[in-house]
Design a protein that fits this description.
Elements: H1 7-32, H2 36-55, H3 60-85, H4 90-110, H5 117-124, H6 132-151, H7 153-161, H8 163-168, H9 173-212, H10 218-242, H11 247-266, H12 271-287
Helix pairs in contact: 1-6, 1-9, 1-10, 2-3, 2-4, 2-9, 3-4, 3-9, 5-9, 6-9, 7-9, 9-10, 9-11, 10-11
Organism: Pelagicoccus albus
Subcellular location: Cell membrane; Membrane
Protein name: Metal ABC transporter permease
């Protein structure tokens, strides 16, 4: 069966395209800044807001989005405090935010009577349930993520590649960090529509990690990561339709397989190409 045969498959494919673009835009910054742990904490903190919203009868994303943004600001402040003090206690506090967010979400979900299929789709992913309303929400979220990245692209790249040099140039590095974490929070809420809250971190990191093997600069990494994410989502949709497998886990496994293949091929290419890629990457840092 073609992915475009039925309307629900077209909605699902549209949601997949939006998700792939979100991965491509945010994933490279997560990789370059080594924010996977912080992004994971933001993602799992969203479960607290999701559970509270569900308990009081609101749409899950109405709780997940504010919870993710608030936790992003709190985590950003803790990370800044940790880098300035050098004590290292902030990692434990960030881990506590991760755990508390999940605990609050599980508690409120368990206190809500009945079984809600929509809620389970947010936890474990269900791209096939995407409809026009969800696609509109995701498209709006993608625009909110993309516009600040386009407007502040050069400062964000500079602050990500070399924060100290960016400070010397007078860039508001702390403010840019908060902006980036906020955009990560929004992207997380978009991606849980596809792979669920449990697997969202993998989709946010694996495509950009694969792209980093070949891309020479942040712009190229964004484009390549988007294509890799889209290929992974396409495989997940095909598996869901043809084999009746859950799409979310297959999407993540496809992304992991592409990362493994990319890692193997990266060690096979001639050393001259590797050296050229590193040189161009270094030049792009100075240009940023």
């Amino acid at each position: 069966m073609s992915l475009l045969t039925y309307a629900f498959m077209r909605w699902a494919l549209g949601a997949g395209v939006v998700s792939a673009l979100a991965c491509g835009l945010i994933g490279p910054f997560v990789r370059v800044r080594r924010l996977a742990f912080l992004a994971g904490a933001v993602a799992h903190s969203a479960l607290g807001g999701l559970g509270v919203a569900y308990y009081y009868g609101f749409a899950p994303e109405a709780g997940a989005l504010p919870a993710a943004v608030v936790s992003a600001f709190l985590i950003g402040w803790l990370d800044k405090r940790g880098r300035s003090s050098g004590h290292g206690h902030e990692d434990a506090l960030i881990g506590a935010i991760w755990a508390v967010g999940m605990a609050v979400g599980i508690l409120f979900i368990s206190r809500t009577p009945g079984y809600n299929v929509q809620l389970m789709s947010y936890l474990f992913g269900s791209i096939l349930t995407a409809g026009p309303d969800r696609l509109m929400f995701m498209t709006g979220g993608l625009i909110v993520v993309a516009l600040p990245l386009i407007i502040f692209w050069r400062p964000l790249v500079a602050a990500s590649l070399d924060p100290e040099f960016a400070r010397l140039r007078g860039l508001p590095v702390d403010g840019l960090n908060y902006l980036l974490l906020t955009l990560i929070a929004i992207a997380v809420v978009l991606l849980i529509q596809v792979v669920g809250l449990i697997l969202v971190l993998a989709l946010l990191t694996l495509p950009s990690a694969s792209a980093a093997h070949w891309a020479r600069g942040m712009v190229a990494m964004v484009g390549l990561a988007s294509l890799i994410a889209l290929a992974s989502i396409f495989v997940g949709l095909e598996a869901a339709v043809s084999l009746d497998w859950p799409a979310g886990p297959v999407i993540v496994l496809a992304a992991a397989s592409l990362f493994s293949l990319s890692s193997i091929l990266r060690h096979i290419v001639p050393a001259k190409l590797v050296k050229t890629g590193k040189t161009d990457s270094a030049k792009s840092r100075h240009q940023a």
